[in-house]
Amino acid sequence: MGAAIRLFGDKRQYVRKTISQPDVAAELSRFTTSVATARYQLLKLLRSQKELPASAHGILEVHLLMIEQSPLIKDVEGTIEDERVNAEWALSTVTGRYIERQNAVQDENLRERAGDIDDVSERILNALGEGSELPLELLDGSVIFASTIRPSTLVELSRRRPIAIVTEHGGWTSHAFIMAREMRIPAVTGIKDVLHQVDDGAETAVDGYNGQVIIRPSGETVKRVSGIGSSVVNPEARTIVTSSVIRTLDRREIIIRANADSEQSVECLHSSGALGVGLLRSEYLFAHANGTIAPEEEQISAYEKIIAAAAPNGVRIRTFDLNAEHLSPKTGDQESNPSLGLRAIRLSLAYETHFRSQIRAILRSAHNGNVEILLPMVCGVDEIQRSRELIDREKAALRRDGLPCGDPGIGAMIEVPSAVVMIDEILQNVDFVCLGTNDLVQYLLAVDRDNESVAEFYQTLHPAVTRSIRIVLAAAERENIPAAICGEMAGSPFYAPLLIGYGAREFSMSVDSIPRIRTVIEGISFDEARSLAREIDTAANAKEAENLIRVCYNHKWPHLFPDDFLDLAAEKSFQLSSKN
Ligand code: PEP
Ligand code: MG
Q1: Fewest CB atoms within 10 A around its CB: which of 5, 21, 175, 471?
Q2: What pLDDT score does 103 carry?
Q3: Which residues are identified as catalytic?
Q4: Is the pLDDT of residue 575 over 50?
């Protein structure tokens, strides 16, 4: 329960802020500077892109005219002065009005101008953000409403964390929601037009378990919602676990490590019983850096803190899984399809200087710690071999310079279909593999993991997914190479028996998920899990697989999977949001 606060913007997110009269002049000047920056960028683009097609040239000229001659800028300044609001808010309200007006006209050509207004506004917004912190000042107990929420916004908010998050867009495995779960923030996504349905300050109840958002709830609803947390939250979730060895009933040993993305996320590492960090999403350690890659020394200090928190167990540091957009202020790259673009290991190999500084930072922080390097989005052996060469070269250079460095093992994320097909060759080139099921589902089924409108096609139990998992685990077993499951699937009790049945011996998940997974693992036998997996192999589709799992759980392990858990799982059969 909390007070609503709307968060606007896409790339750069902001709230409405009232400013005091004496600060109005400074806000106006901030706005004027950002308009000047936007104008300068447009002029530069026009001058530098001589071979630009005439149409593109025309568009840039229209944008320039909007800045120089249309009443838009004056209107925004007027709004800042009259309403005493921050520039971001004034700009978005004024452009919103302009776009609405434009959309209402009959002429199709003129209607298209709405997109240009949006473009210009986004350019000025970006300029407003340069070099400043996000203008996010949250009161305690705020419920954030946003069209979408960026992981970097959540990082910014982690000091003053919201009490809940409600968004229009996002999926179960979107990074922002993975982080929200880690931060124990209830979140509901996929609510259409949510920003227009609530006012700042409105009392709001969010029931993350059932995916409900109630604005101005009645007294009765308040009572019901307030009780949910205590009845649904697993009481084991906060127990301190001392032994990290987990065994099935028939004594098969299972290793559980933690997924981490910040120094805070490893605070409870030891008490959770995790055997170190199985996936460190290193890019989020530096998410605030906005377009810049943290320098080597800053990286070393962050890695060393996490390595120390995990000691004597190890840390698998995944190299930056960024896309070109994250570096855009430097490179100017804009991709229309970033998931298929210059992302993860591709980006690292394309920007070798950045990659080498990360490698050096990892090697140096590994000198007295147990560290491994994990390469994201590997498609075959090429990226591994090229990375290995760079790692070896940096190792030799560090030694030459007399700097202490470690000798970390190298692993690959298996998260794109080609990596599954090439698994035998990949295993010849690595010390371990990690199955990234979030991306594996996305790429195998060609379904955007961040897009709630295709959530029904994001089918974790699709036969193509389960078969791929079986193939990878079997190949790794044959070669005696460790294989860990580290996508969100690993942290869901619903999938744990199936994964164990397919041969999984290692899992990596958010610290919060460990107690429930542990209970499930300790309550089943490998033998029974194996026969469940064999049965699932006969399913023709995800729905059938899910039903088979439910029947099996009801029959064999009703004490591990209470009715309401399975009912919820059935209801949201494809979105799977309630299963985790
Ligand atoms: C995955 O893809 O499953 C994974 C663990 O990596 P990320 O969620 O960071 O893409
Ligand atoms: Mg991934």
Answers
A1: 21
A2: 81
A3: 175, 486
A4: no
Q: What are the pLDDT digits (tens) for 84-137?
A: 999 999 998 999 899 888 888 777 766 667 778 888 888 898 888 765 554 556
Please tell me the distance between residue 436's alpha carbon and the centre of ligand 2 in angstroms. 5
The DSSP secondary-structure symbol of 342 reads S
- If you take atom 1 of ligand 1, which residue's CA is the nearest one? 436
The amino acid present at 335, given as its one-letter code, is E
> DSSP for 282-327?
GGGGGGGG-SSPPPHHHHHHHHHHHHHHHTTS-EEEEPP--BGGGG
Q: Please give the full DSSP string across 23-46, using - where no structure is assigned.
A: GHHHHHHHHHHHHHHHHHHHHHHH
The residue whose CA has the least distance to atom 6 of ligand 1 is 436
Residues 272 and 274: their CA atoms lie apart, in Å, by 5
Ligand nearest the Cα of residue 438 is 1
Largest CA distance in the chain: 76
Dihedral angle over CA of 245, 248, 254, 257, nearest 10: -70
Q: State in Å: Cα 563 to ligand 2 middle.
A: 32
User: How confident is the model over 403-443, as pLDDT tens digits?
Assistant: 999 999 999 999 999 999 999 999 999 999 999 999 999 99
Residue pointed to by tokens 């800028």? 73
Alpha-carbon torsion, ordered 205, 264, 294, 320, to 10 deg: -80
